[in-house]
User: What shape does this take?
Amino acid sequence: MSQAVLEPDEATARPMDLLRFATAGSVDDGKSTLIGRLLYDTKTIFADQLEAVEAVSAARGDEYTNLALLTDGLRAEREQGITIDVAYRYFATPRRKFIIADTPGHIQYTRNMVTGASTADLALILVDARKGLVEQSRRHAFLTSLLRVPHLVLCVNKMDLVDWDRGVYEKIADEFTSFAAKLDAPDLTVIPISALDGDNIASRSEKSPWYEGPSLLHHLEHVHIASDRNLVDVRFPVQYVIRPQSKDVTDYRGYAGQVASGVLKPGDDVMVLPSGMTSKIAAIDTADGPVDEAFPPMSVTVRLTDEIDISRGDMICRPNNAPAVAQDVEAMICWMDETAPLRVGAKYTIKHTTRTARTVVRGLQYRLDVNTLHRDEDAPQLGLNEIGRVKLRTTVPLLADEYRRNRTTGGFILIDESSNRTVGAGMIIEAQ
Amino acid sequence: MSQTKPYRVSHLDALEAESVFVMREVMAEFERPVLLFSGGKDSIVMLRLAEKAFAPARIPFPVMHVDTGHNFPEVLEYRDTRVAELGLNLVIASVQEAIDSGLVRELPDGTRNRIQTPVLLAAVEKYRFDALFGGARRDEEKARAKERMFSFRDEFGQWDPKNQRPELWSLYNGRHHPGESIRVFPLSNWTELDVWHYIAKERIALPSIYYAHDREVVERAGMFYAVNEFIVPRDGETVETRRVRYRTVGDASQTAAVLSEADTVDKVIDEVAATRITERGATRGDDKVSEAAMEDRKREGYF
Assistant: This one.
């Protein structure tokens, strides 16, 4: 027999949910050690990986096992001792599966951090207790708030090197909290840790009896993310039209997509944009059968009661709650291309939800200094890793919401029309 | 899609929804996608996701097997059964034919992992495939941990790790010029354990060699290789019958089995959860060549 179907037991079906978080830090603040510690304490590092890292560390003459080698996978990274790109790491506890987007602090930090933060539920920023907040900590906090990451954790690391001095921790925590308030930053938690010794990582440490908050892992496991999703505004970008060409299934026409926000139910009145036609949801299908409701991040197939012309790039919403149908868009743009800057008058391809169009840059209102938050209104262009507020005009309307209200229908990318490179990331402020 | 309580999804449902989204994006934006199907567990899971993404329609693209000629018969049988069940078009890119025609040359050690690459690229060119679904996961290996979900390849099929497109939100950039292509990895965010949990949840049949069975093996460098037409015991090696299973299924001349009593999916899950060695480290002779073995192969156009 070459095939075997085996019965799962109940334990394997235990529901765990998923938390995506981004880490940011500079070279020597202990970020790699912290990630190594999280992986080690959750038994995610494998013996052969550890042996390989130990062998390379020893060969290079490192005094201790360099856990950064676990994440630095590319030849150039190992040769130069730097991290080039966002690395994704995975670990799980019985409560949650975690995806870490580990972004390097020094090279291309803005591009990488913005990329990692775009899908993150939580951002983790490290500071060295001896140094306190540095320019980079503020920059990371700003980018986190720009990308609307709902939860922010500041880890005050290397507490062992300041003898677990409560005053040092509180000074940093206070300073960061008041800075974060200015940014309209989301839920903030500050935790004193020692990544090297594992204090306050997997469990609360006896070395900080004055600290009454959770350990880092406990916080990651329990932080409430279910209500971060927008369950109010129904937005269903049509991705693909399913029309089986077979004898078994006739007259089937389903609109496949992933629910961006809101809750869809059979019987709901809906409106389809940009046409504005209205209909009702006849059924919500999945390969496992129809469902009573669909909500983010489910991928489903919606059928309507009326035959109306719908194609990829259209959006299903509610008649009394619709996104803007807009060709003029104002957005914050993070420029990601090293070969050429963003210039007024330039044309790009824009990808927004499942809709692709062309766009022209009508104006650059200001360039933002991410360290001082100063707005330079005379800036002629946006270079690599620069952020600014831009006016765009598109060839066809976008079906868009403000990014602060909806990360899926408020975010877009710009693509260079000749090289096809992804050159910019945008967050819509206003669409009309 | 099972829900435990209102508006919550399990991690497996979230991973499935993401993979389904990615497959639909490809179908909507590319002209000639193909799914790389080896009969290994990851490609089997990927095929199930493709079934789900386009139901009730059939999977709207062909599958391709880059056939090293070094196969486990159970896996080939599985491949053919599955392809027939789903009514798929199977493209076989044969390494043996490529050797016979002079496209590639057999390596002195007889292994065929590395010489798969030109065979794969020739098939991509012949059939003008513009998107190739691969079952690679980021947890497998650290070069892969840095690869995008949509991984751009130039007209030579090469991956340039320092020149990757930033990937934000769920906005994937699949734009390319004629002759270029995109490798798409819908399982990027899955771990080995996620794959096994999903196999259990979906009750997916696998080739029997993934479960514990008695087999004649020889031990080499701490790994257990099945004695077959490709692996002949060397002087001084003893052939023993051991209870083993395969954690990965690759070229039969290079893939080792692990000692195991796990003959059900739940026992495999327990074993995977408890193991302290990565699956490639435990079973792939080809990955032990150097620190950068995988990166080098990917640069050449490997999966």
In short: Chain A has three domains: 14-227, 236-317, 324-431.
